[in-house]
Design a protein that fits this description.
The complex is a heterodimer of chains A (280) and B (314). By secondary structure, chain A is mainly α. Chain A is built from 12 helices and no strands. In chain B, helix 8 (163-187) runs antiparallel to helix 11 (217-233). The chains are: A mainly alpha (280), B mainly alpha (314).
């Protein structure tokens, strides 16, 4: 009887080890496959040249995805300009003003719920809201869509970081007769590292977005030509080139995936190292 | 006596407006998608029950996509939930120290991988592997069950691009979400619960089942809801491996489509206002699914998990 229970115990623990294996193996496989296949096309041209024509007969030109690197950078910067300031201010309200009132608590809750809305739905919303009135896909529509996706993430991570600021700092400031808004800004300054890492994670998240771009930015195979025009992006090329039948396009898709995964994982690893030992 | 300060009022107004973005966005999502789908919303339930998607005659039914969405999410949860709970148990109960923190980091990294990269890897690595090494055995031993039957002649003609593969890739994508929340729920279980079980002579696995899983079950249920919210609206990874056929097949090894892939595929070629309206109505259906699942999941976490945590540390 006891031996059976001991055996059962071992099997149970082995099961959890197997589950960890099942979860980690795909991650390792994805990183390895992307690194090996992507490295083959990463060179100076990849970042500076335009995509090549599809390769039907050899010799094929490799070309690059310079337009997509440029387009992704522009979109991320514009989206950050929308998403980070609104998100941080919203986080200040949730933590410094509304921590104990129903409105602040509800906004915090809604932010969490909104973070679970699929990006294709955000795309459909921005299509109806921006693309239809402006009569076409544009950088503007894409920035609004990505920026709105950043707001709940930045707001909640900022509120979390502000919660970590010791109350004694606020009380000391209030005791000196300092205005509430100066005190709140002071807390932001104290929590700046946490707020910065939250913003970085939001940037990493939207850099890898694709579905929302299909309905807002559209695509282009040329350099950036204005905020009212579509632009090329790394994630769109990964999808478009991977599902094409041309070998040189498929190779570029793996290259774009390597650049993307390096940026996204780099940011995540950096954040992890910076926040390590902070007790969170 | 305190003078009202302009700075105070202006700053407070600014942060309240910014915080209201969450409320504003929630309202705008529903308002705009209902308004945008007005042209087809009047057709009623036939949108969900009809199987014809005809942009010429303007007949729109998403039954095959609805089926694909539900089935791929169900496969994702059937595979993903047991694995995630296993991972969560390992992280909270079995491992500690450096092993725990580095494995937690790896599992979180799974959530950081962009979905289009899951799609790329699924298309070129996972789908060929499953269709050559896994599916034939499943078909040989379980082929008498219709969902695992041989779909085409020859078998696996589509090279693994199927509803099943979409479900498998989704199961990998929901693991980090479910595992992280379930782990937090398990870590919030008070030590006294475990000690009580050990004091009764329970083994480690019996303690986990009696104390930890029982105590953390509301957190695990919440995690499953949030995993579903993720799976139901996932677009790129599914789009690249599901084969994009608007059909309801009895075998899961056949291609299919989901509401999200329908929207992604059709939007750029939407030919008429009615067509756009039908696609936005698809978006509305997805919004209702994901908003509801996300809402319920977050509510459970707020009501039970954080409440217990607070009680534990009080």
């Amino acid at each position: 009887m006891n031996r059976r229970r001991a055996l059962f115990n071992k099997l149970w623990i082995a099961g959890t080890v197997a589950a960890v294996g099942l979860a980690v193996v795909p991650l390792v496989a994805i990183i390895a496959d992307v690194a090996i296949k992507g490295a083959a096309v990463i060179n100076f041209d990849f970042f500076t040249k335009l995509p090549p024509p599809p390769c039907v007969v050899a010799p094929c030109r490799q070309g690059g995805l310079g337009d997509a690197v440029q387009g992704t950078l522009i979109l991320v910067v514009l989206a950050s300009l929308i998403g980070i300031p609104i998100g941080v201010l919203s986080g200040v309200y949730v933590s410094e003003y509304g921590a104990n009132n129903p409105y602040g608590v509800s906004m915090r809750f809604l932010g969490d719920v909104l973070a679970g809305i699929p990006s294709i739905v955000t795309g459909a919303l921005v299509y109806a809201l921006v693309v239809v009135p402006l009569r076409g896909y544009s950088v503007t529509a894409g920035s609004v869509a990505l920026g709105s996706m950043m707001i709940p993430i930045v707001s909640n991570t900022s509120a979390e970081a502000l919660k970590g600021v010791p109350n004694s700092i606020r009380e000391a400031s209030h005791a000196l007769g300092i205005r509430k808004w100066r005190v709140a800004l002071q807390s932001v300054a104290v929590a700046k590292r946490g707020i910065a890492t939250g913003s970085l994670l939001a940037i990493a998240r939207i850099t890898g977005e694709t579905a929302v771009l299909l309905l807002t930015v559209g695509t282009s195979t040329l350099w950036f030509s204005g905020f009212g025009k579509p632009v090329a992006t790394l994630t769109f090329y990964i999808y478009y080139f991977a599902t094409s039948p041309y070998s040189n396009w498929k190779a570029l898709a793996w290259g774009a995936a390597l650049v993307l995964i390096a940026v996204v994982m780099g940011i995540n690893a950096l954040v992890r190292i910076v926040t390590r030992g902070k007790g969170t | 006596m305190k003078r009202t300060s302009v700075g105070d009022l202006a700053f407070k107004a600014a942060v309240i407006i910014a915080a209201s973005a969450a409320l504003f966005l929630s309202v705008v999502y529903f308002y705009e998608l209902i308004k945008g789908s007005a042209l087809t919303l009047g057709e009623g339930w036939s949108f969900l029950t009809g199987s014809t998607w005809d942009t010429i005659r303007n007949i729109y039914g998403i039954y095959p996509e609805l089926w694909g969405t539900v089935v791929t999410s169900a496969i994702a949860l059937c595979i993903g939930v047991p694995v995630s709970v296993g991972v969560a148990v390992f992280l909270s109960e079995v491992s500690k120290g450096y092993l725990r923190s580095s494995l937690s980091f790896l599992v979180e990294m799974l959530a950081a991988v962009p979905s289009v990269i899951y799609g790329l890897w699924g298309l070129f690595v996972l789908a060929p592997f499953l269709s050559s090494d896994i599916y034939p055995s499943v078909e040989r031993y379980f082929g008498f069950i219709p969902i695992f039957s041989c779909p085409t002649s020859p078998c696996f003609f589509f090279g693994g691009l199927s509803v099943m593969t979409a479900g498998v890739i989704l199961s990998i994508m929901v693991i980090p979400i479910i595992a992280a929340i379930a782990r937090d729920a398990m870590l919030a279980v008070p030590g006294s619960q475990r000690e009580a079980a050990y004091a009764l002579g329970a083994t480690r696995s019996e303690t986990i089942r009696m104390s930890v899983l029982t105590y953390a079950r509301s957190g695990i249920v919440a995690a499953v809801f949030l995993g579903f919210a993720r799976a139901v609206g996932e677009t790129m990874a599914v789009l690249m491996v599901i084969g994009n056929e608007s059909v309801v097949s009895k075998s899961l090894f056949n291609p299919g489509s989901t509401i999200a892939t329908l929207i992604a595929n059709e939007f750029s070629e939407a030919s008429s206002a009615v067509n756009v309206s039908a696609l936005l109505e698809g978006g509305l259906v997805l919004l209702i699914f994901s908003f509801a699942a996300s809402f319920v999941g977050r509510l459970i976490i707020k009501r039970f998990v954080t409440g217990r945590e607070a009680a534990t540390y009080a």
